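Board notes (copied after class):
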Amino acid sequence: MPDALAGYLDDRAGEYAGVQGVFLCPASRLPEMITELVKIRPEQPLPLSLIIDTGLGGVPKAISIVESRDELLSLRMVEMPAPSDVDEVWLERVSEFVPEDVVRVVEPRRGVGWLDGVRNVIEHGSWPKIRCGGLSTENFPSVDEVADFLAVVSGSPGAAFKATNSLHRAVRHTDPETGFEHHGFLNLLVAAGRSLSGGNVREALASTDGAALAKEAAGLSTEAAKAVRSLFACYASATFDESVADLKGLGLL
């Protein structure tokens, strides 16, 4: 926790602070984080995304703890995994528990009927989250699955999504240690643009041509760029430096 906070705050004060988003912390580690922040005493409250790993019933208490330390924390987002059926009663409770000015992010489980879950999440005013990797091959969705997800979200007016896991590199690649095929966050960005404009989404997701992807992203009109960023609202990365290095190398920063 001390290392994570120190690294995050250094990046917030660095040259590429504009790339940095919120700090992610599991609800189960809130006390640990607050203890460290009391020592650090940051100049501004830490922008926080609270990851609910304690079950839906733990949400009110976790949010209450965060709000009681508003000199240290600014709650921007609450994220949680959905139950297998993503039923309406559960989603309504999420809406009741999370303040209106805080973004709600819900992750439906991939599997049979998961796109119906994605639609339900959107209809209840939350952002759906797509997990793009992890510790086993099952955690990595196929190009078709990501394309289907993008079709649902881009076809829902005003909807936004978050992506997470194994997205620290800009361009699709194979990890030499694990052999896993990783999605790239730049691929996702270009694919989101094509999903909105009726282009070939699967081609963008499968591409390993960083220069071509960068050229397409840089060529978006101001209007198109805003639409893409409204749709593909944010992604989570385990590292900051790799993402920045890739963007610099591609001429996008």
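Comment from the instructor: The CA atoms of residues 47 and 74 lie 5 Å apart. The chain is about 45% helix and 15% strand.
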